[in-house]
Amino acid sequence: MDISSTALRVLQQVAESGSFTAAASLLGYTQSAVSRQAAALERSAGATLFERRPDGVRLTPAGLTLLRHARTILDSVAAAEHELAGPAARTELVRLGVFPAAGAVILPEVLSRLAATGSQLAVTTREGTTPGLIRALRAGSVDVALLTSRPPHRPSDGESPRLHIEPVEETELLVGVPGTGSFAGRTAVHVDELLDAPWIATPSSGEEPLLGVWPGLPGRPRIVHTTSDWLTKLQLVGGGFGVTTVPSRMSPLLPQGVSPLRVEGAPAEVRRILLARLPGRPSPGVAAVIDAVTSTA
After folding, report:
1. HTH lysR-type domain: from which residue to which, for each copy (predicted)?
2. pTM over 0.85
3. How far does CA 221 lie from the centroid of its chain?
4. Rg (CA), the chain
5. Minimal CB count within 10 Å: which of 23, 59, 82, 166?
6. pLDDT, mean over the chain
C-alpha cells in the first residue's frame, strides 16, 4: 500500500469525530479534501474502510484494522520529529483527556504533582464527553483519559481490544442551589420539591444524556438556561437564577452563593471516575500520569 501520513491522520480523525465534516474542521481541511483522502485510502487499501450512515461515519472492520496500525505509524513519525528536533525537545509527550468537571477538581492537582516530581514530561490536555474521549483513545488522539460513568456502570464500550479501565474514585451527585431563597440554610431537599425548580442544564446530545438535571426527577424538568460551561452554570445558580447538579467532589470549589444539598426521597446517584487507556504496558510518561491521578484521588 502506498499511504501518506496525511491520509492516516484523516482516518484517525474520522474515527474520532464520526464524520467527514467534523474531521475536516479539526484538521483544517475542506470537506472535499477529506473525502478525496478517504477515497484514495480505500483504493490503496483495496477495501472499504468507512461505513457511511445517516448518523455519521464509522470505520468498518477493515478500517479498524488499519487504524490500529495507523496509530503505530503516526506515533513513530511523531517520535522521529521529536528526536530530530534535538536534545532540548526530548521530553515525553502525554496527551490526557478529561471530562469537563475534572478540569476544575482533579487536573490542577495532577499537574502540580507531576511538576513536583521534576519528571521530563510534556502533558497536554483536551476536554470532552466520555463517549468522545473513548473514541479519541481508540483513534490514538489521546494516551489516557479520565471518564465518568453512571449507574448501572456498564462497560464504557464494546469494541475490541477492550480498553484498560480502572476506577479512581466515586462521588455522590448533589444539587447546587442559591444561598438565598426557599432552599437557604438547608442541607437536604426532597426530590418532589425539585420538580418545579428552574434547572440550569448542559445541552443534551445523541451520545450524552441531559446533564445538570436530577436523573430521578419525578416529571419533566423546567429548564430555563442551558450552557456547557460549569462556571457559567454555577454563577447562574449563585445569582439565584436556577439550580443544577454538582458532584460532591466539587463542593469545596463552589463559588460564594451556591450551596450543595443532598437529595432525599430518591436513590443516591453515584458517579464513578475512571482512568482509561489502550491495553498493553503503558509508557513511563503515561504511567507517571496514572500515578499522579491515583495519588490525587
Report:
1. 1-60
2. no
3. 25
4. 22
5. 166
6. 86
